[in-house]
Design brief:
By secondary structure, the chain is mainly alpha-helical. The chain has 16 helices and three strands. A three-stranded antiparallel sheet has the order 1-2-3. About 45% of the residues are buried. Bound molecules: coenzyme A.
Length: about 375
C-alpha cells in the first residue's frame, strides 16, 4: 500500500457522524448540541450542560429539578469503592484510581449487563454523580485527610469543591470551576472518546468504555497535558513575591531554551485547531479572575511569557489545558489531580458518544498494511 494512503494517527480521517458536538477549526468554534460553548459557560450550570449533552436539549425547570435531585442522590462514595481506593498505593497516579473506580462501579452496578438506552443513561448519571467523590477523596487521602461527605444543598461544582477541601468556596471560585467543567465536557472524536467508542462498538458495556477512555485520557498528549503545564511552571519556578514582568522574562527565556532543545511543551498545539483553541479565551478569563482573586499576578507573568515566546518562535497557540492547569493550582488542587478533574467533566461527553455509538453501531475495525518479514517457514 502506498505510504500516502496510510493516515498515521487517523489525522484528517472522518470516521462517523456525531450530533453531540461540532468543532470548527476555521472559525475557532465549538458547539455542544448546537449551542456555542462560550454561551453555555456564561449562562449555564454544569448540570444543565450534562443534561443537554445526553438529551440533546437544555432542561426546562421541571426536568432540571428532577435531574439535579437524581445527581445529588448519587454523590455518596460507595463504601466498597472507598475500600478499593484505599487499597491503591498513593504512589499510583490518581488517574489509575479513577480508572479502577470506574471499573469497580461498573462491576457493582445493578444494571451491569443491561445495555438498553435507559440502563446506559442511568449508568452515565451514576458515574457523573459519583466520580467527584472519588477524585475529592483521593486528593484528601493523599494529604492524610479524611473523607468529606457530600452536601445535597450545594450544586455540582460547589459540592465538588466542598468534598475536596472541607470548606465552602466563594462564588467566584465556584463559577470558575463550573466554567472549567463545562469547557472540558465534550470535544467530538478526540482520542479518549474514540477509544471508548471503539470499545462500545464491540457491544461491550458502558463502564468498560469509560474505563478505557480514562486510560486514553491519562497520556500527556491528551488530558495529562493540564498536569504537565503545572510541571512546566514548577520547573521555571513559581515565586509569588515576583512581579508579573520578572516572571514573564524568566518564562520567555525558559521557553526559548526549551524550543532550542526541540522540546514539546505541553499545553500548546492541537491536532484539530491550528489557529487557537476555541475554549481558551473563556478559560483564560476564568484564570484571570482567579489570579485577581488570589492576588497572584506573577502566575500571569509565567503564563504570558510562555505564550508569547511560543507564538513568536513557532506560532503555536495554547490549548485548553494551558489556562486550566494554573486555575486548578490556584484553587488549591494538587497537580496530580488535574486530569482526574477532566475525567469528572468528560464523563458527560464520553457517555453521550457511547450511547450515540450504540444507536447506530458498526464495529470499528480498521485495516493495517503489513510491513513485517516476508512469509518464511520454521526450519
Ligand atoms: N511544543 C513544541 N512544538 C510543538 C508542540 C508543542 N506543544 N505542538 C506541536 N509542535 C510542533 C511539532 O514539533 C511539529 O514541528 P515540526 O513540524 O517542526 O516537527 C509541529 O508542531 C506539528 O506537530 P505535531 O505533533 O505533528 O502535530 P499533531 O497535530 O500531531 O499534534 C498535539 C497535536 C496536541 C499532539 C501536539 O501539539 C502536542 O504534543 N502538544 C502538547 C501536548 C498537549 O498539550 N496536548 C493537549 C492537547 S488538547
Amino acid at each position: 500500500m502506498a505510504e500516502e494512503e496510510i493516515k498515521k494517527g487517523l489525522a484528517g480521517v472522518v470516521v462517523d457522524y456525531t450530533a453531540v458536538s461540532k468543532v470548527n477549526p476555521d472559525t475557532n468554534s465549538l458547539l455542544y448540541r448546537g449551542y456555542p460553548v462560550q454561551e453555555l459557560a456564561a449562562r449555564c450550570s454544569f448540570e444543565e450542560v450534562a443534561f443537554l449533552l445526553w438529551n440533546g436539549e437544555l432542561p426546562n425547570a421541571e426536568e432540571l429539578a428532577a435531574f439535579t435531585a437524581r445527581e445529588r442522590a448519587g454523590r455518596r462514595l460507595d463504601p466498597v469503592v472507598k475500600q478499593v481506593v484505599d487499597a491503591i498505593p498513593t504512589t499510583a497516579h490518581p488517574m489509575d484510581v479513577c480508572r479502577t473506580a470506574a471499573s469497580v462501579m461498573g462491576a457493582r452496578h445493578e444494571l451491569s449487563e443491561d445495555s438498553s438506552r435507559e440502563a446506559n443513561m442511568a449508568k452515565a448519571v451514576d458515574l457523573f454523580a459519583a466520580m467527584p467523590a472519588v477524585v475529592a477523596y483521593d486528593q484528601r487521602r493523599r494529604r492524610g485527610q479524611d473523607l468529606v461527605e457530600p452536601r445535597d444543598d450545594l450544586g455540582y461544582s460547589a459540592n465538588f469543591l466542598w468534598m475536596a477541601f472541607g470548606e465552602e468556596s466563594v462564588p467566584e471560585v465556584v463559577d470558575a470551576f463550573n466554567v472549567s467543567m463545562i469547557l472540558y465536557a465534550e470535544h467530538s472524536f478526540n482520542a479518549s472518546t474514540f477509544a471508548g467508542r471503539v470499545i462500545m462498538s464491540t457491544l461491550s458495556d458502558l463502564h468498560s468504555a469509560v474505563t478505557g477512555a480514562i486510560g486514553a485520557l491519562k497520556g500527556p498528549l491528551h488530558g495529562g497535558a493540564n498536569e504537565a503545564v503545572m510541571h512546566t511552571f514548577d520547573e521555571i519556578g513559581i515565586r509569588p513575591e515576583e512581579s508579573l514582568e520578572e516572571a514573564a522574562t524568566r518564562a520567555k527565556a525558559w521557553m526559548e531554551h526549551a524550543l532550542e532543545q526541540k522540546k514539546k511543551v505541553m499545553g500548546f498545539g492541537h491536532r484539530v485547531y491550528k489557529h487557537g483553541d476555541s475554549r481558551v479565551p473563556t478559560m483564560k478569563a476564568a484564570l484571570d479572575k482567579m489570579i485577581a482573586h488570589y492576588g497572584r499576578p506573577e502566575l500571569l507573568g509565567l503564563y504570558n511569557g510562555l505564550e508569547t515566546a511560543m507564538d513568536e518562535a513557532k506560532g503555536i497557540k495554547p490549548n485548553l489545558d494551558y489556562p486550566a492547569g494554573p486555575t486548578y493550582h490556584l484553587m488549591g488542587f494538587d497537580t496530580l489531580m488535574f486530569t482526574p478533574l477532566f475525567v469528572a467533566s468528560r464523563i458527560t461527553g464520553w457517555t453521550a458518544h457511547f450511547m450515540e455509538q450504540l444507536d447506530s453501531n458498526s464495529l470499528i475495525r480498521p485495516l493495517s498494511a503489513y510491513n513485517g518479514a516476508e512469509e518464511r517457514h520454521v526450519p
